[in-house]
Amino acid sequence: xxxxxxxxxxxxxxxxxxxxxxxxxxxxxxxxxxxxxxxxxxxxxxxxxxxxxxxxxxxxxxxxxxxxxxxxxxxxxxxxxxxxxxxxxxxxxxxxxxxxxxxxxxxxxxxxxxxxxxxxxxxxxxxxxxxxxxxxxxxxxxxxxxxxxxxxxxxxx
Amino acid sequence: xxxxxxxxxxxxxxxxxxxxxxxxxxxxxxxxxxxxxxxxxxxxxxxxxxxxxxxxxxxxxxxxxxxxxxxxxxxxxxxxxxxxxxxxxxxxxxxxxxxxxxxxxxxxxxxxxxxxxxxxxxxxxxxxxxxxxxxxxxxxxxxxxxxxxxxxxxxxxxxxxxxxxxxxxxxxxxxxxxxxxxxxxxxxxxxxxxxxxxxxxxxxxxxxxxxxxxxxxxxxxxxxxxxxxxxxxxxxxxxxxxxxxxxxxxxxxxxxxxxxxxxxxxxxxxxxxxxxxxxxxxxxxxxxxxxxxxxxxxxxxxxxxxxxxxxxxxxxxxxxxxxxxxxxxxxxxxxxxxxxxxxxxxxxxxxxxxxxxxxxxxxxxxxxxxxxxxxxxxxxxxxxxxxxx
Lengths: 157, 389
Fold this sequence. Notes:
Chain A is an all-alpha fold.
């Protein structure tokens, strides 16, 4: 039994799917109108003309997530063959995997404890000017009745 | 016995014909059921929101998605001026082709004999089976990433970066829950996974593994598909339309198709892994039909639950999403994996590892608290074991 034989149906399905997508795009090219203008082709900004390029730099947190994912994914890759033969490994396999899982788990703990997996803005809770309770009166005083905010912070309204 | 019995005696003309028929049937069935799924989702949601929903095209509006698809063929296909042209054109293909392929390894029925050939009612049964599902769902990340990056526009790029971080996070959970299933079935082949759950419903993995892995898998697969409440990729309040903002006409339709196809496929995979696939009581008349009906019924229930979740739950915030993934679901799935492995060896090992899970939970909680405090302290690392921020 050739081991690649069982992928033949997947290949057939692959060809079908590719043909479907390709023919659809081709059909759309033949059927659809083509009247491009500069406004249509501009990046979508709700009608505002874009003035600068999209960001090239991202918070480092995304890269940290990618790295911890690679660590976990490598663990999972090793877990698959282990799981298949686990019936024959018995207690040895269990102890082995507990040690392995623990080592990966501690790397997760380290990242958690450095705050690398905390998202969202760092919020400093703004003290309510010595007031502990939050009432309608205190909210109105903080934001002002006109709704412009920052009452008494020195910034001109 | 691993491998497809269809190929046990070489590849002849009859075998090739059977393969082609299987692939074409799966292709058409998948396409039709995707169209029905779009209609079903819109109809169910409109019922839940006390609206009528689509009711013009065909009886009960059942042809609505066909009409929408036809309309999209006639819409102008725009290529943004700042787009990376080749990648921009490639991305919809990367989305839709894997969506078709994942379904290939899902067993939809029992085993029948056609012209002396043993035919398993699934498109393909490669020895790596369930790994193929994981491979294809990983490629879906590329589709989102490439689409967002190549658009040359702000919102798609932000959506794509979010999406890739979200999808890889939840992929780890999916991988760990799949490992638990393999621990019970001793094989990667989807057919073997289904057969190991046959006969009684208490043999189903959802019960044998103790509900938690199934819940984890279900939440993670919802997040992996970017379906609500995890659809931050296309959060329209923040990102316009997300990674596919710049797409129009048929290229957009291909993304849309892929999304709904993935919904059906992941429901089918959940049924395969945890609910015995086509397993269920049958009768002696037309014996090959009953497993298929069971499979379709179970998958439909899962599709309904997906729609229900979409109608019921508000979208998560991004930090809540990441917290759920990294601080709760991943540690829990890792711990539960060890418990499952322990119980297989002996019950006392299971209890010992359950204790370890509790200790681990406390550690995660403490570590997360420390991390939050360090961030609040102006991102200054706290030095020394006794120091408190």
